[in-house]
Amino acid sequence: MKNKQATIKDIAKAIGVSPSTVSRALNDHPAISKATKEKIKAKARELRYEPNIVALSLKNRSTKTIGVVIPELIHFFFSSVISGIEEVAYDNGYTVMVCQSNESYEKEVKDVMALLSHRVDGLLISQAKEILNNTHYKEIQDRGVPLVFFDRKPVDMIAPSIIIDDENAAYEATRHLIDQGRKSILHLGNNLNMPISINRVDGFKRALKDGGLVVDESMIIDCPSDQQGISYDKMLKLLEDGIKVDGLFASNDLLAIGAIKALKQFGLSIPEDVAVVGFSNWKFCDMVDPPLSSVDQPGRKMGRVAMERLLKMIVQDEEKQNDVTILDTKLMIRKSSS
Amino acid sequence: MKNKQATIKDIAKAIGVSPSTVSRALNDHPAISKATKEKIKAKARELRYEPNIVALSLKNRSTKTIGVVIPELIHFFFSSVISGIEEVAYDNGYTVMVCQSNESYEKEVKDVMALLSHRVDGLLISQAKEILNNTHYKEIQDRGVPLVFFDRKPVDMIAPSIIIDDENAAYEATRHLIDQGRKSILHLGNNLNMPISINRVDGFKRALKDGGLVVDESMIIDCPSDQQGISYDKMLKLLEDGIKVDGLFASNDLLAIGAIKALKQFGLSIPEDVAVVGFSNWKFCDMVDPPLSSVDQPGRKMGRVAMERLLKMIVQDEEKQNDVTILDTKLMIRKSSS
DNA sequence: TTGTATGCGTTATCAA
DNA sequence: TTGATAACGCATACAA
Q: I need a surface site. Which of A121, A286, A313, B34 has the fewest CB within 10 A?
């Protein structure tokens, strides 16, 4: 089972013409007689010739491939982003190499170096939770490879980024709870040392202040992972400790659902006793009981916009920019909070 | 912002030595003096040299890249599979190119051709729902490129495949419902013209027969898409039409959850009035209310095994095989059915 | 209108 | 121990 992919030479030999003629014919070069062009194209079809992109890449110094590094693919949000990226990439003749950092700094660095070795034409990165430094990002830029961040961006890098306004999204979600008359609002955050988490906490606090409520740090809980019902456990513990709560803003939908389970188990009803808002608007939000209010995070769009921004950098060969594109979120109000 | 990636020539020039010497030094060739080797390696680090995999690929006729074609990335199951693939690929020095067919035959063909052009060392494919013919698969094999199918495999192709026993999984799920005393069991299938769906229907029917129940074709409902609460609508319609049902086996978790919503809305309780089992065991299964019984489908493992099988084909350069690896599913029994 | 030579970055082969 | 050369597949400047 050896590799038998036809090359331009095979066609040339088969017809008795030079490889360059074949190349020109296949690329519809004007200075080629119709007769030979036809003959060559026919033979190409016959031999099922497909251009070798590896050779083309070497010649053109462009692989028509872009590299993506994301924390974890199995998160609905990130797989939506990838879908968006792939869509735009495909429409523009690019293919996508996906790597997962698994939230590890070390893996992220290795992924970046591997993608650079593969000579991707550009990189799209969403930073891992574990952040040590930015040297690998600088490395990308030093090599003149276009780089765009999405969703999670490092604080001190000059590079375009596509994000949502986490502070504002959290503000609106919290504000909504306050508007429902809630006064003891809990926030379940996901890894509070991440910039986006910090922004969400900030928005949460600002809403409380604007609503005339006191900020109580003990009402801000860190759920470092969103696996295995951690929010369920934490919520249950809080309830057993006698916490008073009538509103809950969770940093992602899974955390919200875990907490709701604990609340119900404790005999509380949603939304009567506790109004709940999640984050990401997974598609099961309107299928759970009660349907979960959530901040819609436009994953697919983020992917599309990020890829488009990257393409612009690739074709325009522009100088380092620091523009930030902020995508709209939308609070989807469902029964869990109204 | 031009591409400034150092090459072997840059190092050679900087030190005043030939490119081949640099190549040998970097590859720890024995016949190279320690002195020059050190000098070259130092300079390589200084210039942040990274081998150009494109050039290597052309030379070695191997890209160390494998192509994956899946129906849709945003499905939890498929993103799990990709994770597994990526894991094994990474451990073996491979990178992964992911394409989505979006369940379209035409797109699948284009993806395959694009990946062949990229000269991937092998392909992992899960077939789109829309199936017209197998010529593009044959094409892959004709070119001598290793090919492995996972989850969804075409019926008449000689190629290794990694699948689950859909018939048996459905049998067990249905059998479990029967064991709970259920007698009017509904099956919500997802695209009943797909081979895996047919297998699940077969398992469903076999369980009914084994349990002494009559197979009623009107109790087998096709939900061609799992988006937008289609199962909710269909279930509601059935209930309004006065269907009698005390058990439900759904072909995926989202269908199950949509149906549960309709059942509840109709005043029925789960599992008292209707016992429900889903398929895939998404991580929110034990977070919904009531926790949803489901057939656990080992996505990550499927990805790992498929990639391992493909690697074996790549390195061993073996003849066309037709082996089938069947991964174990496990019925996760939760409150929704017991 | 077509052929020849060259180079993209790397390594294997042969020569020195 | 090191250097020159050729080759991987393709496109293109230059020659014919």
A: B34
The reply to whether A90 and A206 lie within a common domain is: no
Could you say which nucleotides of strand C lie within 7 A of any protein CB atom? 1-5, 7-13
Q: What's the whole-number mean pLDDT along residues B15-21?
A: 91
The verdict on B303 and B157 lying in the same domain is yes
Q: A221 and A136 share a domain? A: no
Q: Of chain A residues 165-224, which have a CB less than 8 A from chain B? A: none
The mean pLDDT value for B130-142 works out to 92
Q: Do A139 and B48 touch (CB under 8 A)?
A: yes
CA A108 to each of CA A98, A117, A135, A136, B70: distance values in angstroms, whole numbers, following the listed order: 12, 14, 12, 9, 24
- Token match 């929010």: residue? A231
Q: What is the mean pLDDT of residues A227-236?
A: 85
pTM of the model: 0.91
pLDDT given at position B2: 55
**Neighboring chain A residues of B141 at a CB cutoff of 8 Å:** 1
Å between B55 CA and C9 C1'? 5
Domain that holds residue A266: 166-297
Closest residue, CA to C1' of D5: B20
pLDDT at B3 over 70: no
Cα separation of the two ends of chain B: 63
In degrees, to the nearest 5, what angle opens at C-alpha B121 toward C-alphas B116 and B127?
A: 60
Q: Which two tokens stand for residue A22?
A: 């074949």
Answer yes or no: are the C-beta atoms of B312 and B329 closer than 8 Å.
no
pLDDT at residue A308 above 90?
yes
Cα B256 to its chain centre, rounded Å, is: 21
CB atoms within 10 A of CB B40: 24
Residues A314, A290: one domain? no
In this structure, is residue B264 part of a structural domain? Answer: yes
Q: Among the listed ranges A232-241, A258-267, A279-288, B273-282, which one has the minimum average pLDDT value?
A: A279-288
Shared domain for A202 and A159, answered yes or no, is no
Q: How far is A213 from chain B (nearest CA, A)?
A: 31
Q: Is residue B58 part of a domain?
A: no
- Say whether A2 and B80 touch across the interface (CB within 8 A): no
Q: Which nucleotides of strand D come closer than 7 angstroms to any CB of the protein? A: 1-5, 7-13
- For D1, nearest residue by CA–C1' is B32
Closest CA of chain A from B125, distance in Å = 16
- Please check whether residue A89 lies inside any domain of the structure: yes
From residue A144, how far is each of A114, A308, B47, B255 by CA, in Å? 16, 18, 14, 48
Question: Are B297 and B280 contacting, i.e. CB atoms less than 8 angstroms apart?
Answer: yes
Looking at the fold, whether A40 and A104 belong to one and the same domain comes out as no
Report d(CA B6, CA B20) in Å as an integer: 15
Candidate from A54, A115, A318 with C-beta closest to B54: A54
